Backbone:
């Protein structure tokens, strides 16, 4: 199977299945001498781990990460860093009833059509369980950015919409995010989202979500103007997350309604004579290269396809049938998708920083 590696200079190669013995990744291209211990990674894994609230899957995984190589005496050696997380709470029997059926909305049919053989237990390699390793790699990417560029670099995200219930920009407060189970920046939406998702969960249905990620403190100059545009790589990274169906940078589709004079981010000088942008419709990227402004991107996650309502499908022999997906699933996959989106943004930025450093410094 191809496509298990991400990145150019900073890259990781993930491995493992949802119901296998373990999942893991090998992170390569990390400069030597960077302080790194398991706790640096575990902090971010804990924010993605299942079972955090009733609004996520009730599969119980500690997601305890082990560093197997590439670190000595608490510092990176410059060699590949191998990470592993053992699966602890896989219940493969939950999938016995659908082993020969394609779940609509999942990768079952396309995976079978391509490879002719698949691990039906939780989706195998196509499971969102794989995203834990993205978060682990993203934690190392953050360490590169913080030590190589600025310790005050911030990469953070928020869930800004669930179903048709969206947050208010006027009520945005980053401090709210760690106070609720939704990573929601608008405290007035918490009760509404709780009620909405409780109804979805009780009925065996699901809901989609939009996640916004931002990077603050990234210098101007990362990226390239043609095929290696920074925003193109961010879009690919976010679209590669399970259940992602749309990405926009900056104002994205909303910029279509603006006039050219309004959409253009005017530039002046601050008190120190440095460039000062008067707006940020471009989301911190111009011509594929970072401008020094906040980098802003959003990703739309579809509703979880595992639902209790019978759906029409085919089995592996081509017979028409129906399927009900039982087991433990996220009623809104976008909630746990937020830390993954943060991690993928960090991986892209670390990769582009190393590429920029190799060419221009």
Residues:
């Amino acid at each position: 199977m191809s496509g298990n590696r991400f990145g150019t200079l900073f890259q990781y190669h993930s491995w493992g299945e949802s119901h296998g013995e373990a999942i893991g990744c090998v992170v390569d291209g990390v400069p030597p001498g960077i302080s790194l211990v398991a706790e640096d990674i575990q902090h971010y894994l804990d924010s993605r781990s299942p079972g955090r609230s009733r609004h996520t899957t009730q599969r119980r995984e500690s997601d305890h990460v082990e560093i197997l190589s590439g670190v000595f005496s608490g510092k990176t050696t410059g060699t590949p860093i191998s990470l592993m997380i053992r699966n602890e709470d896989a219940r493969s029997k939950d999938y016995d009833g659908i082993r020969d059926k394609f779940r609509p909305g999942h990768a079952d049919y396309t995976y079978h059509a391509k490879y002719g053989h698949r691990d039906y237990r939780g989706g195998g390699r196509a499971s969102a369980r794989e995203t834990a390793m993205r978060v682990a790699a993203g934690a190392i990417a953050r360490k590169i950015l913080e030590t190589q560029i600025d310790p005050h670099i911030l990469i953070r995200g928020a869930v800004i919409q669930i179903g048709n219930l969206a947050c208010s920009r006027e009520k945005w407060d980053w401090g709210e995010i760690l106070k609720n189970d939704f990573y929601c920046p608008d405290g007035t939406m918490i009760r509404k989202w709780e009620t909405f998702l409780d109804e979805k969960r009780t009925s065996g249905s699901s809901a989609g979500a939009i996640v916004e990620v931002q990077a603050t403190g990234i210098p101007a100059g990362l990226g390239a103007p043609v095929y290696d545009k920074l925003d193109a790589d961010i879009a690919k990274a976010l679209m590669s997350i399970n259940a992602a169906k749309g990405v926009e940078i900056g104002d994205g589709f909303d910029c279509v309604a603006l006039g050219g004079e309004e959409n253009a981010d005017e530039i002046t000088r601050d008190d120190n004579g440095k460039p000062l942008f008067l707006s940020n419709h471009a989301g911190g990227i111009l011509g594929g290269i970072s401008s020094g402004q906040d980098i802003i991107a959003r990703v739309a996650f579809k509703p979880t396809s595992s639902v209790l309502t019978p759906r029409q499908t085919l089995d592996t022999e081509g017979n028409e049938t129906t399927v009900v997906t039982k087991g433990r699933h996220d009623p809104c996959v976008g909630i746990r998708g937020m830390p993954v989106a943060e991690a993928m943004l960090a991986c892209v930025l670390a990769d582009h920083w190393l590429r920029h450093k190799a060419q221009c410094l």
